[in-house]
Design brief:
single chain, eight-stranded mixed beta sheet, extended, alpha/beta, 30% strand, 22 helices, six-stranded mixed beta sheet
């Protein structure tokens, strides 16, 4: 049933209705006798017109009310709902929706799944519900956020129906505030029913936590404790609650790239909380994790296995550890450097570029990471490896947020020459890897000749475009980039231009589409013409194709290209490429030939080849030059006098920051600041750049200098994270779900509380998310800080107690086991949700999930009961009123201007009945007018005739002489014309009409 009503949005305009009586009174004064009908009709039209205009101003709306009801089920699909109970939940929702939904008046039903977030599984619709146990929507099952589900349901409701939510959950909340959200929904008129998913009678074993000291020393024993909890559940048999749960406890230690089982023991876990402890000690420093796991002997003895493991971290102090990363093609290049560090009591681990770290945990044992003349992409034509964006970000985060050192040692494959431009590594360094202030800037030009034929569609073209973007990223702003694409025809996708406008060039590259055949020769010719006119110092061309091209004189063209100072490398993609041709072109062009079977390797190839363009960044002077010490620095402590001569380095530009120190510079080339040694503070860590090498090529004279080892050693020690933790600062952690709380206790050397300090928290999460927070003092010497963990997993934190103090490092593991820590059903909270009463409605109901089909069929109250206020929807109609007003205004004008009557109706009726039509009655006024007209005509004729007689002269003759003896005339006299003062015919006619009108007025 649908009802309609009228509502007014702006009733203030209704006061204009008071103008209607005034309009009637004014029009009454102009009323003449016999015109009352016309006055009534005219005023009715005008009054209606005014009413419509006033209604439009007042924004009149049409309100539609109906009895429809929309019910949305909120289904908890978090891991705290066991799979067997989830099947029962789905059956309950499906059966109640399909059995109790009323087709009349068109009730609707929908489903929203929720866990850590919420998603619409089935939008509200008026048909049967086909719900499956397997969710179509993706949600985070590790958490429960009922608040998000309630807010999503409110947004999903249609406006033309009453609204009810049915919550099917165990009530455990790990995120959000469901009660506050439910109150808001209830105030908005939404009813809330609850279906609690109660727990079953079974035991639940959980590993509550594993505790280790935050820090310890090498070879010092420390305690490891594992806390386990056996909750037997609710059993009707009291003896069953006393039975222990047999199983196996296993503790695994991980660190320094090794994993070892330190405890594996069979135990019987009685009901209640038990603590197992053991002692451990470690000979080497680093960051170690301990994971404890309990596995029951038989299935069914434990409700959830997701809460059967816990992790803890400990940091073992050492004399200092160094991670040295070298090029995989030259693994022995820095052996002398590594041996020198080891001789000075530093532990050095060498990693080649093809066996890099994979996560932040792998870097925690090391106090400094050294990049030894390693390029971002390295290898030969058969195998190329590259630092990923994630790995570069991990290196930067490890320094900025965790205080580790980062050192880059120079060489031909380092800094900008190694492809590190525009990367997180450049951001972490005190130098920009580009030349900005030189008077004459050597630049390079890179031309990409790329196949975009139909065979390149899909994954191939995707990785080619990604490779072009990576090549662009490796270039400086004054280098040149060009992209010539080809299929059957050649296109200048990116005309050769400076690489400074990166967003524009990237956009042009992204527009590449695959289609057509393959014709390489015209594309190479066009690329050659573009590069031939360019004045770059180094020019390089990369040719990529996956197919066969028509025969042409490629040998002669490549020779011309090479004679012009342009090198050519080629890439054959797939088995169908013309391998022989591309190999020959690369040989003539003094480049490299690459054959790849997977398109994913293309970006690494382009990154490596782009380094050829960066060669002008390497400055070499074979006769040598002498470095200059221009500023005192802690690294140069103990150095005096001059430094030995060296023959080359990689040119860079110091960053415009007061934190950057450049204590040693190179004298050439002039016109710029040539940093040889640069340092700065990056976050809570330090980074150092040494732009020359360490004795391999440019500083061979330094190896015999007594200060060589001292300088390198002091660079490493200055940049290292301090290994001497502040003994007077103790950090404790508390993890509650995703909320992490840190407690810092600070004492000075005399044992007194440290007050009014400003400790700072920095850290990195499992997905490289930054963590920053400030501590607040809550008691003498006690400070607290909190943060919300965005993701579950290991979090590495560094607490900086005070300026100049070494940070205290700790690790915590945020687990998604909060769903299983609390086994209560939270029925009180669910009851409060159902007790909420919407305005004009009734409180919600609490239904029983475990009813049999017979009980379900006989229940009196269902989720589809109609006890909520009727839904209403408003539709504005002011625009319809305006259109009607415009039409009515035309009718009103016609009524006032057109003389109308209904005499035609009688005539029409007579014609339809074939009756003789009576003569039209003559109106009396017309008869009077006709009579007056005739009188006027007669008077005018009489007047005209009399005037004619008077003005005609008589003719006299001798025979007609007068009797009175007057002399007779012998000639006939002609009549004389009237004077100008006499009235003419028209004037006399007008006078006659005026006289007739005056008589009529007198009559």
């Amino acid at each position: 049933m649908i009802d309609y009503q009228i509502s007014v949005e702006r009733p203030i305009y209704l006061v204009l209705l008071a103008l209607l009586p005034i309009m009637w009174w004014i029009s009454w004064d102009g009323l003449s006798l016999g015109n009352r009908v016309r006055w009534t009709i005219s005023n009715a039209l005008r009054s209606l017109l005014c009413l419509l205009i006033i209604g439009a101003l007042a924004e009149v709306e049409l309100v539609q009310t109906n009895d429809r009801l929309t019910v949305i089920y909120l289904v908890d699909r978090s891991l705290s709902i066991p799979p067997d109970r989830l099947e029962e939940v789905v059956d309950y929702v499906r059966s109640t929706a399909n059995d109790f939904r009323q087709p009349v008046p068109d009730d609707r039903v929908g489903v929203i799944n929720f866990g850590g977030d919420a998603a619409i599984e089935i939008p509200p619709w008026s048909s049967d519900l086909f719900l499956r146990s397997q969710s179509e929507s993706r949600i985070d099952p590790q958490q429960t956020n009922l608040e998000a589900a309630l807010k999503l349901a409110q947004a999903a409701f249609p406006i033309d129906a009453a609204k009810r939510i049915v919550i099917v959950t165990d009530g455990k909340q790990t995120m959000g505030d469901a009660l506050a959200a439910a109150r808001s929904l209830s105030e908005a008129g939404i009813g809330i029913d609850v279906v609690p998913v109660t727990k079953q009678a079974r035991a639940e074993v959980s590993v509550e936590k594993i505790t280790t000291p935050a820090t310890s020393r090498e070879k010092s024993p420390f305690q490891v404790q594992v806390v386990l909890n056996n909750d037997p559940g609710n059993h009707w048999d009291a003896e069953a609650k006393k039975k222990p749960v047999p199983g196996k406890l296993r503790v695994v230690r991980s660190g320094n790239g090794n994993e070892q089982v330190v405890v594996e023991q069979a135990i019987e876990l009685p009901p209640g909380i038990r603590v197992f402890s053991f002692q451990d000690q470690l000979p080497d420093g680093g960051f170690y994790s301990y994971q404890a796991e309990f596995t029951p002997d038989a299935a069914g003895l434990d409700g959830f296995t997701q809460n059967n493991r816990a992790t803890s971290f400990t940091h073992i102090e050492s004399t200092g550890q160094v991670l040295l990363i070298v090029d995989s093609t030259r693994p022995d290049e820095f052996d002398d450097f590594a041996n020198m560090l080891r001789a000075n009591n530093l532990k050095v681990t060498i990693q080649t570029s093809d066996q890099l770290f994979s996560n932040l945990t792998d870097l925690q044992p090391y106090d400094v990471v050294v990049l030894g003349n390693v390029a971002r992409s390295s290898g030969d034509s058969q195998s190329i490896t590259a630092f990923s964006d994630a790995q570069m970000q991990i290196l930067a985060d490890n320094t900025r947020n965790l205080g580790a050192g980062l050192v880059m040692l120079g060489g031909p494959d380092s800094f900008g020459a190694g492809g590190w431009t525009n990367t997180p590594i450049e951001e972490a360094m005190p130098l920009d890897f580009q030349i900005k202030d030189a008077k004459v800037v050597p630049v390079g030009a890179l031309m990409l000749v790329m196949d975009k034929s139909g065979s390149m569609s899909g994954e191939k073209l995707h990785w080619c475009k990604a490779a072009a973007r990576e090549a662009l990223r490796a270039l400086g702003p004054r280098d040149y980039i060009g992209v010539t694409s080809f299929d059957s025809v050649t296109s200048r996708t990116v005309p050769l231009q400076e690489a400074k406008n990166r967003p524009f060039v990237t956009q042009l590259i992204s527009r590449l589409t695959a289609d057509g055949g393959t014709n390489l020769f015209p594309a190479m010719e066009d690329a050659f013409r573009q590069m031939q006119s360019n004045e770059a110092a180094v020019k390089h061309m990369i040719v990529l194709t996956d197919g066969q091209t028509p025969a042409a004189d490629f040998g002669n063209l490549t020779q011309q290209i090479r004679k012009s100072g342009i090198t050519v490398s080629t890439v054959a993609v797939g088995a169908d490429a013309d391998v022989a041709l591309l190999n020959r072109v690369a040989g003539i062009g003094s480049g490299k030939f690459y054959r790849v079977t997977s398109p994913k390797a293309i970006p690494r190839i382009f990154m490596q080849e782009a380094r050829r363009v960066a060669r002008p960044l390497v400055f070499e002077k074979p006769e040598g030059m002498v470095a200059e010490i221009v500023d005192q620095h802690e690294i140069l402590k103990g150095f005096g006098g001059s430094l030995p001569a060296f023959s080359g380095y990689v040119m860079t530009t110091p960053k415009d920051s007061p934190l950057v120190d450049v204590p040693i510079i190179a004298p050439e080339p002039g016109g710029q600041t040539n940093a040889l040694l640069a340092t700065w503070q990056y976050g809570i860590g330090r980074s150092v750049c040494w732009t020359s090498d360490v004795g391999q090529r440019w500083t061979t004279n330094w190896t015999g200098w007594e200060g060589h080892d001292k300088l390198l050693l002091q660079i490493i020690r200055w940049s290292m994270r301090s290994t001497s933790q502040a003994k007077n600062y103790l950090v404790a952690t508390e993890v509650n779900g995703q909320r992490v709380k840190l407690i810092l206790n600070a004492l000075d050397d005399d044992g007194n509380f440290v007050n009014f300090a400003s400790p700072q928290l920095n850290g990195v999460g499992p997905k490289s998310e930054m963590i920053t927070a400030g501590f607040q003092q809550v008691a003498p010497g006690r400070y607290e800080a909190e943060f919300e963990a965005e993701n579950a997993g290991p979090h590495f934190l560094a607490v900086s107690p005070e300026a100049g103090k070494s940070p205290v490092r700790i690790g915590i593991n945020v687990q998604n086991a909060q769903e299983f820590r609390d086994r209560s059903d939270n029925l009180p909270m669910l009851g409060r949700l159902a007790a909420l009463t919407p305005p004009g409605g009734k409180p919600g109901e609490v239904f029983n999930l475990d009813m049999t089909p017979e009980q379900l069929a006989n229940i009196e109250s269902t989720p589809f009961r109609h006890d909520l206020p009727k839904a209403s929807s408003q539709s504005p109609i002011w625009f319809l009123i305006l259109v009607t007003s415009a039409a009515l205004f035309v009718v009103d004008i016609a009524n006032r201007r057109v003389l109308w009557g209904f005499a035609w109706a009688n005539s029409l009726w007579a014609r339809l009945l074939h009756r003789p039509q009576p003569e039209a009655p003559v109106i009396a006024s017309l008869n009077r007018l006709k009579a007056k007209k005739e009188n006027l005509s007669r008077e005018w004729l009489n007047t005209f005739e009399s005037q004619v007689v008077d003005e005609t002269p008589s003719a006299t003759t001798t025979e007609d002489a007068p009797t009175d003896g007057a002399p007779a005339t012998t000639a006939t006299s002609k009549p004389e014309l009237g004077t100008a003062d006499e009235k003419g015919y028209l004037d006399r006619l007008l006078d006659a009409k005026r006289q007739s009108r005056r008589k009529d007025e007198i009559d």
